[in-house]
Write a structure and sequence with these properties.
The chain is mainly beta. Helix content is 12%, strand content 34%. It has a domain at 29-103: Immunoglobulin-like (Sandwich). It is globular and about 40 Å long.
Length: 109
């Protein structure tokens, strides 16, 4: 039966065509089950940067409503990146809410 869920997911993805694909979080993934109320808000220039939390890709910032991401309560390493720009890094402490403001610097050719 363990093979049934991945098989159904593959069938659903094939049937979607150009439709929307929803991410289904793995309950064993600590980032998939954030503590209630724990939020990270990021304001970045440019706004379409890629987000990495503890080295794991979490999509583009402009894909999150108001740049707000749910995260677990422990301290985290945040990386923002975009081709043609220098990377931006931060360590955030454990706590309820954190707000970051980042301005990525264009790479010099």
């Amino acid at each position: 039966m363990r093979w049934l869920a991945p098989l159904c997911l593959c069938a659903a993805l094939i049937g979607c065509g150009d439709g929307v694909i929803q991410r289904i979080d793995d309950p064993r993934d600590p980032l998939a089950s954030p503590a209630p109320g724990r939020r990270l808000r990021i304001e970045a220039t440019p706004p379409d940067v890629d987000i990495y939390i503890d080295g794991v890709y979490h999509g583009r910032l402009d894909g999150y409503r108001q740049g707000t991401l749910p995260i677990p309560a422990a301290a985290r390493r945040i990386q923002l990146s975009k081709p043609g720009f220098e990377g931006w890094y931060a360590l955030i402490p454990a706590g309820e809410r954190v707000q970051l403001s980042a301005a990525l610097i264009p790479k010099v050719p």
